[in-house]
Write a structure and sequence with these properties.
By secondary structure, the chain is an alpha+beta fold. The chain is built from 4 helices and 9 strands; from the N terminus they run ββαββββαβββαα. The protein has helices spanning 19-25, 73-85, 139-148, 155-168, and strands at 3-7, 13-18, 29-37, 43-48, 59-60, 63-65, 92-102, 108-119, 131-137. The strands form 2 sheets. Strands 3, 4, 5, 6, 7, 8 and 9 form a 7-stranded mixed β-sheet that branches. The longest helix has 14 residues, at 155-168. It starts with a strand and ends in a 6-residue tail after the last helix.
Length: 174
């Protein structure tokens, strides 16, 4: 049974809860979103598998999940990148934020999301239990698609991309 780490608004651990129960109750828990860029400055997106318990068939960042107890966010991001996308990279912390969103199926996300960045020119070898498709995309094209068709993207990814240019202006993405 997969558990998530419950946190307060300052990201201090206050316990654990079974993952589905945390999503049913809307409990604040630690999560991460990893953004992988290639040497052309393109971001690697994944399309979530059609049977995911929420946000199925939507485009999102390279991978996202929850760290396990005793695991750093960076370790969790490396683990999930390998599990979901069949890739290796070294994630670096960018920033964190809290968001809450409810889904039509009665579940919700209430996460303290750590946003990380990594670089790779490798092609993914996707785990089809998690991911149905992938693509590298330039930031300008991505921003245009997010504005024109936001319904094609996960809510947390939309939130990340709303402030992304400001958050990474000091970084070299390519």
């Amino acid at each position: 049974m997969e558990k998530v780490i419950l946190v307060d608004s300052r990201d201090q651990e206050i316990g654990t809860e079974e993952k589905m129960l945390a999503h049913e109750k809307g409990l604040l828990h630690r999560a991460f979103s990893l953004l992988v860029f290639n040497s052309n400055g393109e971001m690697l997106l994944q399309k979530r598998a059609s049977h995911k318990y929420h946000s199925a068939d939507l485009w999102t960042n390279t991978c996202c999940s929850h760290p396990r107890q005793g695991e750093t966010v960076e370790e969790a991001a490396k683990r999930r990148l390998a599990e979901e996308m069949g890739m290796e990279a070294d994630p670096e912390f960018l920033y964190k934020f809290i968001y809450s969103v409810s889904f039509d199926n009665g579940l919700s996300e209430h996460e303290l999301d750590h946003v990380l960045i990594a670089h790779s020119d490798n092609e993914p070898n996707i785990n089809t239990e998690e991911v149905s498709d992938w693509k590298y995309i330039g930031l300008e094209e991505l921003q245009n698609k997010l504005k024109a068709q936001p319904e094609l993207f996960t809510r947390w990814f939309q939130i990340i991309m709303e402030s992304f240019p400001e958050k990474v202006k000091h970084l070299k993405l390519a």
